[in-house]
Amino acid sequence: MAQAPEIMLSCRNLWKVFGPRPGYYFDTAGYRIDPDALAARLRREGHIPAVADASFDVKKGEIFVIMGLSGSGKSTLVRCLSRLLDIEHGAMEFDGRDLGRVGGRELTEIRRRKMGMVFQSFGLMPHLTALENVAFPLKLRGMDRAAREARAQEMLDLVELGGRADALPTELSGGQQQRVGIARSLAPDPELWFLDEPFSALDPLIRRQMQDEFLRLQRQLKKTIVFITHDIMEACRLADRIALMRGGRIIQIGTPAEILLSPADDYVAAFTAEVALGRAIRLGDLAQPDAAPPEGAPLSARAPIEVLLPALAAGQRRFAVEGGRVVEAAAVLEVLHRDARHGGTAT
Question: What does each C-alpha distance from 274 to 183, 189, 203, 264, 269 come to in angstroms?
Fold first, then answer.
């Protein structure tokens, strides 16, 4: 029997409320409040429940994507997880600690040594070179110059910018600046990596390239990642699991295939209605164990099912997928038929 994945971050009943006296509404003796009723009451009385009763686990080594439209609470939630904002109620357990109760020097050390953060704005210091920007968090930790510059160069090599170490931010393209920001966040070797819409300011082609780069890095580093986006196709392309938010609430958590093929309600169905399933559903989503998979090199489990179209047209009916699994043509055709019915078009 496969061992259950280790939980890196566990969150229960998180609330973040903006307003004059948000803490007044929570029973500190125990959680006994109906979340929908409380959220409605908070709004009536002039508060904004930006995160309302959010509960989820992030597994070690997974890409956990939090997504939703503007104002859904996703960026507020990730700022609570990184303790840039304090919650009004709930519990966050990370590395054996109640993260909501940690403060002062201990919190600073957790952020410096165990967490990495990348935001939409690149946040590079304009007077520092790419190498110096990447080395900066290591300087704050007290690492000596030779060691931190060697580590910074290693990270620039990792994001394929090793030859631009001496360049200032103004001498780099937007995609290159974001790579420097990613390298900087990875320099301290964080256990938990937060990325808040890191590619949304980039042009579509550069954004696609950065997604490819991100997946390449994850295959190599196997980090635990919380990734924020409003783009459903980006979420489906990158995520192991997705948490979809609306009005501060988490509406559904599941794999991209579960979100797309079994939406929890009409909102989720409408949110995902225009997604091209052939591009969003992966071979691994449809693969089943098989003692005798077809001969030949197995396909990547992350490949979209549309890669099978030429072979399907040629009459092939079984496809080997990594992990000793098989995808049957009937399962692929069923998804493609559903795609044709609802006219998925998102790219």
Answer: 34, 38, 21, 16, 9
